[in-house]
Each structure stands twice: as structure tokens, then as C-alpha cells.
Design goal:
It is an enzyme of class 2 (transferase). Its main location: Golgi. Its EC number is 2.4.1.-. InterPro entries: Glyco_trans_31 (IPR002659). This protein is of the alpha/beta class. It has twelve helices and twelve strands. The chain has helices at about 1-30, 45-50, 70-75, 80-85, 100-115, 130-145, 160-170, 175, 225-235, 245-255, 290-295, 295-305; strands at about 55-60, 90-95, 115-125, 150-155, 160, 180-185, 185, 215, 220-225, 260, 265, 285. Strand 2, helix 5 and strand 3 (about 115-125) form a beta-alpha-beta unit.
């Protein structure tokens, strides 16, 4: 068993290395090229089954390979059977290949068992998040576009008030939904030129002074009709590794997709000692250890505010 697992891990590592070569070529060509063929057990098999029936919402989750606990929390909350039945939703995780072979094997086993993960053949690094989004667009377009109305992209450290989300989606008009991304929109943001910054971008990578309007990546709402527009734009749009800017700024501009500002629904910097979730926060960032440790309590707080009760033993896993 170990021999088979280790062999597969080494094989996928070599595939990942080949992908990195193609990444460099794509950078020279200045656009993203999507080309992959995954074995079924790494290709979100359970969610593909869900997408054979109509869904109101597909949660499109960017996750890091080592964040198994984050994924389990989302399965027990957003992916809980009572929530998914009420919202008519499903949950899909997009992840790359870990450099650590033990972690890689664990991710493959998780994907095979639960069927709610798509494991792409490139290394799971911060600078590959742009690829994760574009590959995810392609996956959803191929497997779920005709059955899903809305795609809600979130990071794996987001706490989502699904009751607020459901109310919001019920009130979106088709005209608004099919022409714009609903998000915390950042406008007239200057590209970072400080070499010490995590988000430093060279003028070769991005020559303009300011980024186009883009969405914060914690969470945003897309109508399914926008997916092929953004994906097709990725074939020609200049590549940038800053994924939020590229995914919802550069691609949106190229595809003539607008932005609806919903800033008031976000809590990016919650107080670690706060007893409750802000009542009007649809997306809360659990980005610090103190909040991560309290996430189940904060989820229970959301349930209490909405007079709901959910058992943690019935996570749907997708």
C-alpha cells in the first residue's frame, strides 16, 4: 500500500514539475494556459454528481493543502446537510500539490474519500493562486455551469453567514447578477513597488501605476453566466500572480464585467475577543489563530442569531 501511495506521490510531483515549466512558458506568452487531465478520484467526483441537479449556490473554495482542519470546519458548517438542503448548495475545494509527500498523500486520500476536492497538478504556493482560480473556473464551467445559478468564491479562512447570503441572493436582479461581481470592491489601488512587501510587483510584471477595480478574495459572488466570460478572458489577458487583481480585476475588465460594492457585508479585522459575530457581516475573516480557535463558537453564534440548530455530526462532505 505504501509503495503504491509513494509511487503516485512521486509521479504527481513530476507532473507538478512539468507544470512549472509550462507556467514559465505561459508567463512569456503573457496569458494562462489551462491543460490538465485528472484521475476521477482527484476531480471532485461527489460534487460532479451534485451538479447533475439544479443548485442555487456552489461554494468555490480556495484551500491550502495543509489546511485539513479548515476544510473540515467548512464541511461541518457550509457543507452540512441541513444547510445545503435549505440553500440548495454544494461545496467544492480547489487545491494544488503539496511539496511535502506525506501531506500530498493525505490530500489525495481526503479527495478520494470525500469527493469534494479538485487537486490540480501544480504546486500549492501563494504565487500559483491565479492558476488555482482560472483552473477552478474551467472546472466549474465544464461540470456545473448549466446547473448552478451562483458561485460564491471564498478562502478557506472565511466564516460565512449563510442566512444573510441567502437573503441577499434572493434580492439580486438578473440584470445585476449577470453583468457584475458582487464583492468588497477595491478601486484605484496603486501597485506595490516596495521590494520588501509580500505584494511587490515589478514594472515588468505590471507596468501600470494603478490596478483596475478588483474584489477582495475573502468572498465574492458570481453569476454562473460570468464564468465563461472570465475564463475566455484569461486566454488573452496579461498574466499577473496577484490573484485577486488578476481574477476579478484584469479578467473582469477584459470581459467587460462590472463590480457591485457590498463593503458593508464584510468583517476583515474582527476583534479576537469579541463574543459575537457582527450581525450584518456576510463574510468574516478568521485569519488569526485566536479566531480560528473560536470558529465553531462563532458559527454557533450565527445559528443562534437566526434561530437555527445544526448537529455537527451530519456534515455532507460536499
Amino acid at each position: 500500500m505504501c509503495v503504491k501511495t509513494c509511487f503516485f506521490a512521486v509521479a504527481t510531483f513530476l507532473v507538478g514539475m512539468l507544470f512549472l515549466v509550462s507556467v514559465r512558458l505561459s508567463l512569456e506568452e503573457q496569458h494562462v494556459t489551462v491543460d490538465y487531465d485528472l484521475p476521477p478520484f482527484l476531480d471532485g467526483w461527489k460534487v460532479q454528481l451534485h451538479c447533475r441537479s439544479p443548485l442555487e449556490v456552489l461554494f468555490f473554495v480556495h484551500t491550502a493543502s495543509e489546511h485539513a482542519a479548515h476544510r473540515q470546519f467548512l464541511r461541518e458548517t457550509l457543507g452540512h446537510s441541513s444547510i445545503s438542503e435549505q440553500l440548495k448548495s454544494a461545496l467544492i475545494f480547489f487545491v494544488g500539490q503539496s511539496k511535502n509527500l506525506t501531506t500530498r498523500a493525505a490530500v489525495h486520500a481526503e479527495a478520494k474519500a470525500l469527493g469534494d476536492m479538485v487537486v490540480f497538478p501544480f504546486l500549492d504556493t501563494y504565487r500559483n493562486l491565479t492558476y488555482k482560480f482560472v483552473y477552478g473556473l474551467k472546472w466549474v464551467t465544464d461540470n456545473c455551469r448549466d446547473s448552478v445559478r451562483f458561485v460564491v468564491k471564498i478562502d478557506d479562512d472565511a466564516l460565512v453567514n449563510v442566512f444573510l447570503l441567502a437573503d441577499y441572493l434572493r434580492n439580486i436582479t438578473d440584470t445585476e447578477a449577470e453583468s457584475s461581481i458582487h464583492c468588497l470592491a477595491w478601486r484605484r489601488t496603486v501597485a506595490v513597488r516596495n521590494r520588501k512587501s509580500k505584494w511587490y510587483v515589478t514594472r515588468q510584471e505590471y507596468p501600470s501605476r494603478m490596478y483596475p477595480t478588483y474584489c477582495g478574495g475573502l468572498g465574492f459572488i458570481l453569476h454562473s453566466k460570468l464564468l465563461p466570460l472570465l475564463f475566455n478572458a484569461s486566454r488573452q489577458a496579461p498574466f499577473l500572480w496577484v490573484d485577486d487583481v488578476y481574477s476579478t480585476g484584469i479578467l473582469a475588465k477584459a470581459a467587460h464585467v462590472g463590480h457591485i460594492q457590498i463593503r458593508r457585508y464584510y468583517e476583515l479585522y474582527p476583534n479576537e475577543t469579541a463574543a459575537n459575530v457582527r450581525p450584518d457581516a456576510m463574510f468574516t475573516h478568521l485569519g488569526v489563530p485566536g479566531l480560528v480557535e473560536q470558529r465553531y463558537r462563532l458559527w454557533d453564534n450565527i445559528l443562534q442569531m437566526n434561530n437555527a440548530s445544526v448537529s455537527r455530526t451530519e456534515a455532507s462532505g460536499g
